[in-house]
Amino acid sequence: MSRLIASRGLILEALEAAGIPAATGGRFSAPCVLVEPGDPWADVERLQGRGSRLGRWQLTAIAGRSDTDAAFTELADLVDRVDAAVLTVAGLQLPTWARPTDRQLGGASYGATVATVQLMTPKEEAAR
To answer: pTM value?
Structure first.
């Protein structure tokens, strides 16, 4: 299995274990977290060992409402829960979340905030 896909799987498992609905694209039901490739998506990290893969994933926390105080409250709660969930994944950094905005997703407007996380996968884990 690709190290990138495996790293996404670790993030999705952590969110699921924390009871946080997650999606990888397409259809979703807010509130949830959308997990998509970050930019840049993948890089070879030479400092951590030969052939280690640094993968970046964009997390979009999506509230069930847009442009209201309730959306900000819902996003703040979701961000706290996501932070706690990603701390359970070894090597995954705590996200820095962008300012909440209204975003058009799937033809509807939602309150959302975005963060990019990085996860280092050593070459030897690729065989797992």
So the answer is: 0.86
